[in-house]
UniProtKB/TrEMBL annotation:
Gene3D superfamilies: 3.40.50.970, TPP-binding domain. Residues 227-352 form the Thiamine pyrophosphate enzyme central domain. Belongs to the TPP enzyme family. It comes from Dankookia rubra. Keywords: Thiamine pyrophosphate. Residues 410-554 form the Thiamine pyrophosphate enzyme TPP-binding domain. It comes from the Bacteria. SUPFAM superfamilies: DHS-like NAD/FAD-binding domain, Thiamin diphosphate-binding fold (THDP-binding). The keyword Membrane does not apply. This is Thiamine pyrophosphate-binding protein. The lineage of its organism: Bacteria, Pseudomonadati, Pseudomonadota, Alphaproteobacteria, Acetobacterales. The keyword Zinc does not apply. GO terms for cellular component: acetolactate synthase complex.
Length: 595
């Protein structure tokens, strides 16, 4: 369970200090601090002035350049620190600008609280500046629990604050993600409390793992024949237990793109990454050779980016699927036999290992020689970088030479990084495959660097960088140890290559004017390096990693190198061929030929 950083001392302090005479804004800021929040990312505005000031007194407040960037940064700060994080916005466009980032937080399973301002009751419907109310914008879903938020409320009176804080405390204490929206009218922000704040409730215990009978059933299903493990992002906190189970049983492990590194990717039992940018051909071929009876699925939805719903990944005996969310098992593969277990992955694995029979199955599989990752090519003098050579330099300098976190942006950058990088262990790779919003890591790398207090490196395309490049300025203000590696090819290349693969090259324009990102970085006060020669890559990366503040590396890549988007071509097989033939059908990128 994620640490929420609230000790008995924190809670006692909150109860005694938050007495009548305190404003709602001040009490709320103190309560968030007591609940473990240490950072807030957002953009200011007059309607939230009192709340902004209170947050500044009690939290490390990062003033960003756009609300969507703030929400992306807050999301990655959560994953980097393990703590809940606040995003803040003013009324009207402040809220709507933040929504994409908040939806990313929800789909990624982060713990983020959006604090916003709301139109004061006496001014609603009268044309107030940036009015937020039912007169000016849809309120359904934005200010109530639903698809956008796990919980949401407009705080209309100070008397609501105690029960709202209890709801926030319970949500933050539960396993998995929690995204809430608390909107406070300006007049309420400055209102005085009318009653003392009670102590917040103690942390709720995580749900007990499924009982002994269910564990015994899992042992019976898995121990009777060879099985494989499919690890997802929900297993990231149980990496040691995943590896222990694999080594004790001999079960090979494959992982989703978001779970790269859940076991070291040079481990002899590692099969490869499934789905988008992964090693689909290798994984499917090895599964065919190994012929596991069942697959133990740990903390993944098995959605399109992870599986492409390929029937080749369904074993004859089906799945034993463990997830904290009971709606997940069976959703992606409704036709497959699935034994569902609702549990936190770490607790489940602890119980499973304790109940596992004393038998030595470590040699039940004989894996093929070689690893699923292709070799990194030797560098050569060049005018343009081969992306696979760039990934080799990232491997040597960043992953093997530091403890930095690597974040890969949606698009071709994601596929190059996922396919070529070899993660030495968990917790050092972040991608967004669920919402997959461009610009996520362009801003998120700032939150990752400040949340962890160490280097974070973003690998992203030039199109994505242009969407949130302003957050370089945020990093400069705080001298965040963030590095951007921009794959500069003057186009939305996943779209450009995808249209060509569909036989529609030239039918739609995905090109844009070239940008000198090194110059742009220097204009904002960051260090900027431009690299086109592969022989200069290692030195440029080493310089960036040694710099104390933000650095942008403008990597001039060969736009014609086909990205390793294997999932659509090898994982889907006949379905992909049919999609290519019927271009009028619903076809999504990437459908690019492997190389």
């Amino acid at each position: 369970m994620n640490e929420i950083g609230s000790s008995p001392l924190d809670r006692t302090t909150l109860a005694s200090d938050a007495a009548p005479g305190l404003t709602v804004a001040e009490a709320l800021a103190r309560a968030l601090q007591a609940l473990g929040v240490r950072q807030a990312y957002g953009v200011s505005g007059g309607a939230q002035a009192l709340l902004w000031a209170a947050l500044s007194r009690h939290l490390d407040l990062l003033h960003c350049r756009h609300e969507s960037g703030a929400a992306f940064a807050a999301t990655e700060a959560h994953f980097a620190s393990g703590r809940p994080v606040v995003a803040f916005a003013t009324t009207g466009p402040g809220i709507t600008n933040a929504l994409t980032g908040m939806l990313a937080a929800r789909t990624e399973g982060a713990k983020v609280i959006l604090l916003s301002a709301y139109g004061s009751a006496a001014q609603r419907g009268r044309g107030a500046i940036q009015e937020t109310s039912g007169y000016t914008m849809p309120t359904s879903g934005l200010f109530e629990a639903g698809a956008w938020f796990d919980d949401a409320v407009v705080l209309e009176t100070p008397d609501q604050l105690p029960q709202v804080l209890r709801r926030l405390a319970a949500g933050l204490a539960r396993p998995g993600g929690y995204v809430a929206h608390l909107s406070v009218p300006t007049t309420v922000q400055g209102a005085l409390l009318t009653q003392p704040m009670p102590p917040l409730p103690p942390e709720a215990p995580s749900p007990s793992v499924t009982g002994p009978a269910a564990i015994a059933r899992c042992v019976a299903l898995l121990s009777g024949a060879p099985f494989a493990i499919w690890a997802g992002f929900g297993a990231r906190g149980a990496a040691a237990a995943v590896q222990a189970l694999a080594e004790r049983t001999g079960a090979p492990v494959m992982c989703s793109p978001r779970a790269k590194g859940v076991i070291p990717e040079d481990h002899p039992l590692f099969l490869g990454v499934t789905g988008m940018g992964g090693h689909a051909a290798s994984v499917i071929a090895r599964l065919r050779d190994l012929a596991p009876r069942r697959i133990l699925v740990l903390g993944t939805r098995l959605g399109e980016p992870t599986s492409f719903w390929s029937p080749a990944l369904v074993p004859p005996g089906g799945f034993v699927h463990v997830d904290i969310d009971p709606r997940v098992p069976g959703a992606a593969y409704p036709q497959a036999e699935t034994y569902s277990v609702q549990a936190e992955v770490g607790e489940f694995l602890g119980a499973l290992l304790a109940a596992w029979p004393e038998q030595d199955l470590a040699g039940q599989y004989s894996l093929r020689s070689g690893r699923p990752h292709p070799a990194h090519p030797a560098v050569q003098p060049s005018a343009r970088l081969r992306p696979e050579a760039l990934m080799g330099a990232v491997q040597r300098v960043v992953l093997d030479g530091s403890d930095a976190t690597v974040l890969a942006e949606s698009g071709n950058a994601f596929t190059w990084a996922t396919h070529y990088l070899r993660l030495p262990g968990p917790g050092r790779y972040r991608v967004s495959t669920n919402l997959g919003s461009m610009g996520h890591v362009a801003a998120g790398v700032v939150g990752a660097a400040l949340g962890a207090g160490r280097k974070a490196v973003a690998i992203l395309g030039d199109g994505a960088m242009l969407m949130n490049s302003g957050e370089v300025s945020t990093a400069v203000k705080r001298q965040a140890p963030a590095v951007w590696i921009v794959l500069n090819d003057g186009r939305y290349n996943m779209c450009h290559q995808g249209m060509a693969a569909l036989g529609m090259a030239g039918a739609a324009d995905a090109l844009f004017p070239p940008t000198d990102f090194a110059m742009l970085a220097r204009a904002m006060g960051a260090e900027g390096l431009r690299v086109g020669d592969e022989t200069a890559l290692d030195a440029a990366l080493a310089e960036a990693m040694a710099a104390p503040g933000p650095v942008v590396i403008d990597a001039l890549i060969d736009a014609d190198r086909p990205a390793p988007s294997h999932g659509r071509n090898e994982g889907l097989g006949a379905a992909t061929a049919a999609a290519r033939a019927a271009v009028t059908a619903s076809v999504s990128f990437p459908v690019i030929a492997s190389h």
